[in-house]
Amino acid sequence: MSSDNPLEPVWRTYQITRDCLRIAQRTVRRADARLLRGTDFLGDALTASSERIQRSRDESDDFVILSLWVAFERAVLSFLREKGRGLLAVHPASLAGALYGKFENEIEYWKTEEMLDLFRQDLGAQLIGDAKNIKKHRDWIAHRNPRRPSPGAVTPVFAYKILSEVLERIGRL
């Protein structure tokens, strides 16, 4: 991925977090009191600590999907805002100002799914469908309605790959 990918900082932070949790898990398994000093793990039973670390790993998977989506959505909005500046070239100028003003005021309220549909012809139905599935999973994570099952598993790697590809291809438009 290029360094101008707005998802990259989120992804790097997630990878470091996963590595830290892996190291914590190894340390707990070895019951190294010297390394566990000053942590909540020292007094816990091995299985309790291991379970807490695993829950943290699972939650970090969910949190990174939320964070990736936020960065992705902001990047898509920024792209559309930039393209929307072309409305200022509409004649007459009084219409251009009014049209652009309406666009600028309302774009924040557009549904993400509808924004993605604007790119369907250029990016393809499959890629846009994958991005929308990530959005559904993101919504499920954010709202956690116990009466609704997960819309399908989305891994952090899949979310990062798909959302990065969408942004990369949008950037070429």
In brief, what are we looking at here?
This protein has 173 residues and is mainly alpha-helical.
Write the layout of secondary structure elements.
Layout: H1 8-30, H2 33-36, H3 46-84, H4 93-106, H5 112-117, H6 120-123, H7 125-143, H8 156-171
What does the model show?
The protein has one domain. Helix content is 72%, strand content 0%. Helix 1 packs antiparallel against helix 3 and helix 3 runs parallel beside helix 8. The protein is elongated. The relative contact order is 0.13.
What are the main properties of this structure?
single chain; 72% helix; 173 residues; mainly alpha
User: What percentage of the residues does DSSP assign to strands (E)?
Assistant: under 5%
What is the average of the pLDDT values? 91
Helical content, roughly?
over 70%
Q: Would you report the number of β strands?
A: 0
Radius of gyration: 21 Å
What profile does the largest beta sheet have? Answer: none
**What's the number of helices?**
8
Task: Give the SSE order as H and E letters.
Answer: HHHHHHHH
